[in-house]
Design a protein that fits this description.
Two copies of one chain form a homodimer.
Chain A: E1 2-10, H1 27-39, E2 46-47, E3 56-66, H2 72-82, E4 87-95, E5 107-115, E6 129-130, H3 137-144, E7 149-152, E8 167-178, E9 182-189, H4 196-208, H5 216-223, E10 238-244
Parallel strand pairs in A: 3-10, 5-6
Antiparallel strand pairs in A: 1-3, 1-4, 2-3, 5-9, 5-10, 7-8, 8-9
Chain lengths: 245, 245
């Protein structure tokens, strides 16, 4: 049995997230259809992480098993000719059965993009969160210091999500301004709870507008209570940048 | 009578170009509707240049006359609340009757974006021309030298376009590579014939793939024959960056 690893880029706008849902257009659903058409097999496809509806990916990773003998570039070209324009397979590799897209991952890097100016943008409207209030990125960076390291991130997890441990380690958070009024927040962690990246961004924004002081992050973490943290940032500003193995 | 100048950003994807056409969604049509709703007047709106279907603008300029006493920020906020998300008014200014969005312009700057890598991109698919063949930007830059200056650009004008002089002056063309396999071509000229920017890009790409040597541009110009130049680059890679007055 072969195991194949895929690297995927997608525009989340037209998908109801990664996870298969009957009757809805999902990344997994569209990919599995194409894979089944190519292999004539029933395919089980597993991703590094299940991105939510509207979230983009520049390099999502997924794997599947197949008995097919189609060469790798046959998969690459065949899939890309079958797939819609908002989903591109960037790489196809043979891997060993010990590789698991989700369990083998040692870290994931997400990017969150904010457009911080008075007026919205027509061109990047499905690509950034537009915030008209001026954000203080020094305060936001100060707040990040409390997030780095191993913590119980219950306060940043979507309420109602299933319990499977809530301790994660954030290795790095970088915030920088980019020409054109963009603010980029890159979060690198060993794993993310449901909506954790978006809840962190929503909270950092409240620190950037001076609603809370940077050290309030410490209190939020200690409370282990979703109610303490800021709102969930919208999905269309979030990009899965990289999965590290 | 007041004359008002607008600066506009739009995503060309959902518009049949600038120019009003009955029954079609155009930038001019959508804007005039919003302006007439605000002023209760019949509005005549004139743009610096009529962008084609699919072409984007970061700073299109337009003007109109009105007897309305609505303050400038009332226009800015009112228009943006009436307009769809793919059309944003970035600035509103009172100008004198001597200002004319098209006739007063001394130059326009267009950007053309190419994604030059084997695989297309899901995220920027309506924003760049994807070219999988490797382009030699040194050859392309060499070819540009023949375009700079005052020339008869008949060979780069859409066939069948009305005659109104075909001499234009290109002040500058810059080609640069950007991280992520992008090639940016910026063309600054005193005016552009119909599809001139896209026909120049289509021709430069044929030089970049070594179909023609750079100096072939000279022959194309001298021939004054649209058949001599390369194909028309697709509209979705083109952005009106700036109008200079």
């Amino acid at each position: 049995m072969r195991r194949i690893k895929l690297i995927l880029e997608y525009d989340g706008t037209g998908f109801h997230g990664w996870q298969f849902q009957p009757g809805l257009r999902t990344v997994q659903g569209v990919l599995v259809d194409a894979l089944q058409k190519m292999t004539n097999e029933k395919i089980k496809l597993i991703a590094a992480g299940r991105t939510d509806a509207g979230v983009h990916a520049l390099a999502q990773v997924a794997h599947f098993n197949t008995a097919s003998t189609i060469p790798l570039d046959g998969f690459l070209n065949g899939l890309n000719s079958l797939l819609p324009d908002d989903l591109v397979v960037k790489d196809v590799k043979d891997v060993g059965q010990e590789f698991h897209a989700q369990r083998s991952a040692i870290g994931k890097r997400y990017l969150y993009r904010i457009l911080n100016r008075a007026l919205p943008s027509a061109i990047v409207r499905f690509r950034v969160w537009h915030i008209p209030t001026i954000l203080d990125i020094y305060k936001m960076s100060e707040g990040c210091k409390y997030l780095i390291g191993k913590h119980d991130f219950s306060s940043f997890r979507a309420s109602g999500s299933e319990i499977r441990g809530s301790v994660r380690e954030i290795f790095e958070i970088k915030i920088n301004k980019e020409k054109g009024d963009f603010i980029n927040i890159i979060i690198f962690a060993n794993g993310f709870l449901k909506q954790m990246a978006r809840n962190i961004v929503g909270t950092l924004v409240e620190i950037g507008t001076s609603k809370y002081p940077p050290k309030y992050i410490k209190e939020i973490l200690e409370a282990k209570d979703r109610e303490k943290a800021g709102p969930t940032a919208p999905p269309y500003g979030l990009y899965l940048l990289e999965v590290v193995y």
